[in-house]
Design goal:
Length: 210
Amino acid sequence: MNKSSMKPPNLLGTQRGVVLITAVMFLVVLSLLAISMMKTSILEERMVASNRDWSNAFQAAESALRDAEREIKDSTRISGQTGFVALCSSSSAPKGGGLCLPNNCTSTASNGNCSPIWVHLSTVQNDSGWKTGSGTSKSIQYGGITNAAALSGVGAQPRYIIEVLTVPSAGSQKVQPGQAQLDYLYRVTAVGFGVNVQSRVMLQSMVRPH
């Protein structure tokens, strides 16, 4: 055998092949990590934006509650149960819209639906203004009665409805049974919207007029 004709294996070429494969795998891993970090960053940004929009909607609903409280205490529109009707009065009613008797199914006007009136407006009456802040509505837009300046930074102005509730007055124990005097309480339900009207917050408060 002619030993001079034998060639050593090409170790350099083999090493170069291994380095190439390793480098490609390393780049793939880095790319996957970069994509994962990018997705996480985008998700966090969306969560922050959603939380900020919810906060805007919450503050708008709070403003609507305060607006309704000012109306109850200062406006001549609210007097006892006058103007309050089952399933809420409309804006064309003599006293205006948003004045509601509680939906307790004792009235035939409830049509057997015992859901609270603020739910009834959305699900049964399909009140677009109550759900999205725009369109026709039996609810009252922020500033509609008090002329408060419109809120900025929201996709739609908040809205509210007012229910009238009766409770025995403090002097009821002084009259004959069955003749108890009544006081009125008003339950306000307000909805606020964020920049995106899908961000919707509902709040309630109880108001004694005097």
